Amino acid sequence: MSRLDQISDAVLEEALMSMPRLERQPFERRAMKSGILTGLTWAVAILGSIPLFSVIYMLVIKGGARLDLEALTALPPAGFETGGGFGNAIVGTLVMVGIGGIISIPIGILAAVYLAVLGPYSKLAGISRFVAKTLTGFPSILAGVFTYAILVINFGYSALAGGVSLAVLMLPTIVLAAEEAMKQVPQRMTDAAFGMGCTRTQVIWKVVLPTGLPGILTGVMLAVAGAAGESAPLLFTALFSNYYISQMMEPTASLSILIYNFSAMPFENQIQLAWAASLVLVLIVLVFNILARLFGQPKV
Amino acid sequence: MSATAEVVASEASAFAPLGDVVIDCNLEKVFYGDFLAVRDSSVPIEKGKITGFIGPSGCGKSTVLRSLNRMNDLIPIFRFEGHVKYHGQDIYGRKVDPVVVRRYIGMVFQQPNPFSMSIYDNVAFGLRLNRYKGNLEEHVQKALERAALWNEVKDKLKNSGLSLSGGQQQRLCIARAIATEPDVLLMDEPCSALDPIATRQVEELMLELKERYTVALVTHNMQQATRVADTTAFFGVDISEGGRTGYLVEMGQTRQIFQDPRETLTRQYVAGEFS
Q: DSSP letters of B103-172?
């Protein structure tokens, strides 16, 4: 009894003696561990952005020097010529990405409507979703080979074939992003629309699509940005041309193929133009990525 | 009306409506798949009155409400035995279009659910849907006034409906629902997501709305039923057969249900002995 009292007294005394220590103790074991790990993630984050920034830095230094109005508008120079530019390649890239968009955006969004709203749990939806996911990792050169087999063999190299091959690559990105965006539309909103006496078509057109639009546009912009930088599929479908595009069924220049061609040439002028074209291509991709971010922001 | 009286007369908790019946709802069995959700519930909705549905969670009061404008059709595994007649017409009839039914029998939901568009467009939504030919602006203003929201939003009609507070959003949803002049308004726990002040406003609004519309109100809040409902239907849960099946225990004038209930279960519930 008395022994127990003594012990509890001693414990009490000690507790009163030692005030709680609230100061930061950087060399305590847990704090050290936390500090080291935090530092490590910082270091790795910086390491991860080095490639991107060094590429952009090099492009600006090497490509910026030749980036002038002539480069943006003139036709590609021949062997030993000086000057020249890649205006036709910019136009060609935009036209082919446009064709790709015209084909893939409506198909992609309508397919996403089916996946997200009409039959999300149907067998067809399950299969399509799986196929779309597989296609996102599809080697882009195969899209070119595929289009070569169905179009180029019969009709020759053309902007149209280039656009089709880009559409094949854009489609899965758009489908999956648009499906995700429409799934985010809260069910209570669709309930409200049904409760107002909307038909299913009206619910989709008046509520689901407008509400999901920011997310859908983000997906579209990312698909467009990805397609603008593709070169492998265009190698098999649009080939190249030294002139401005005059009709859809002729070989067409693109920035990525021009970079590929010019950077392998033994002429300083062409190599400089290849750098400038690379910078332009990166800027185009960047613009679409920024647009994707802007569209993706929810508006209140 | 005489037909309705006959049907309910055979049941223990018979309720004989005093006025005209707008919706004659008799749900013998409601299933979700194999699950029997509601049985033996005959709930006549009287014209120009507020009919309150009360009962513990899972008693099927929302299921019954959603059967009244075919919102349950959106759940593929829903089926029922019985009938729901609106002005004598079976709304589940073979030739009836559920979309048209919902234009006459509007709905306000538990969670405020304005569309992601401007306040004005939210209210104009149903009017545009019905290709309303009159003065849209005037009509939108009238609906917002009736929903007691006009003074708060008249200077920011272009703002998103989602920018409003919860109570304002719910009044916006009410304005949206009444803009198309529905005959009946179904309200599924419209105040459960609102604070006491907003609840008070919406309740006052309901009392004004019954001048023009017939209202059916599901509520978890017994005080709310005593404050606004003219007649009250009390639903219970039957767990005797393994599942949880809701059924109508008693229906009557609100005062009678709360002060002089016929059934023991009702007495226990309104006394707060279970919830």
A: HHEEEE-SS----SSBHHHHHHHHHHHTT--S-HHHHHHHHHHHTT-HHHHTT-TTSBGGGS-HHHHHHH
CATH for A69-296?
1.10.3720.10
Pairing relation of β-strands B50-54 and B214-218? parallel
- Read off the pLDDT band of B16 (50, 70, 90): confident
| Nearest chain A Cα distance for residue B53, angstroms | 19
Q: What is the pLDDT of residues B84-125, one digit of tens each?
A: 999 999 999 999 999 999 999 999 999 999 999 999 999 999
- By the 8 A CB rule, do B140 and B179 touch? yes
Closest approach of chain B CAs to the CA of A116, in angstroms? 15
B177-198 residue pLDDT tens: 999 889 999 999 998 888 888 8
| Contact criterion met (CB < 8 Å) for A196 and B180 | yes
Whether A3 and chain B come into contact, CB under 8 Å, resolves to no
Q: Judge: A196–B100 Cβ closer than 8 Å, yes or no.
A: no
Answer whether B133's CB lies under 8 Å from B214's CB: no
Residues in B closer than 8 angstroms to A197, CB to CB, are 99-103, 106, 126, 129-130, 180
Ramachandran quadrant class, B38 (left: phi over 0; alpha: psi -120 to 50; beta: rest):
beta
Task: Kindly report the CATH number that applies to the domain delimited by B2-113+183-270.
Answer: 3.40.50.300
A290-300: average pLDDT: 75
- pLDDT band at B168, cuts 50/70/90? very high
Q: What is the pTM of this model?
A: 0.79
Query: H helices of A65-86, where?
Result: 69-73
